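Hi D.,

Good news: the full-assembly prediction came through. Inputs first.
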Amino acid sequence: MPKDILKVVIIGDGGVGKTCLRNQFIHKRFTSSYKATIGADFITKDVHTDDGRKVTLQLWDTAGQERFQSLGVSYYRGADACCLVYDTTNFQTFHNLERWRADFLKQSSLPPDLLEDFPLILIGNKIDIDDRVVSRRQARAWAQQHSSPRMEIRCFEASAKDGTNVEEAFSCIAGMVKIPQ
Ligand code: GTP
Ligand code: MG
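Then the structure:
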């Protein structure tokens, strides 16, 4: 049976826009009030990959704020792909990607040979706001540093507010997952 439901976990600091990115992708809606996520849930959406496959993305969203985090292993278990999100206007959230990536690698309990291949993308959100502090070059350098010869981490600069690159980023991650036929 070809695997066609892909579990995608979205992680990053509180307030970077994980929930808004998912809402924009699924519902084409944006709200400017901030309500921190507590717990975790998923929403599914069917997408077509660039090479014409139809897959169902199961998009998992959870709390970025430390005081609400309690999920650990169960959130990451069985993940097929991971979106690391930072806020282009807040350097600390970019700096913390290292921690999020390490947490993911530790908790996902993937065998080392699979980790090398694991599909990851980087999303720099809130690009609609003028005062960016994380440059495109810095994001690319981070991605390059953490890519492996077999899996290139792609970087997107997106806006959950106006929709820039939201569809592109999630379609990209769907296309990166290798599905055994
Ligand atoms: P936690 O659930 O606490 O982990 O936060 P989160 O990463 O889910 O952030 P959320 O999506 O709730 O967004 C946080 C705040 O940033 C909200 O006030 C959003 O309206 C705002 N926001 C999110 N994305 C964007 C964006 O692309 N542009 C702008 N201008 N604001 C955004
Ligand atoms: Mg949230």
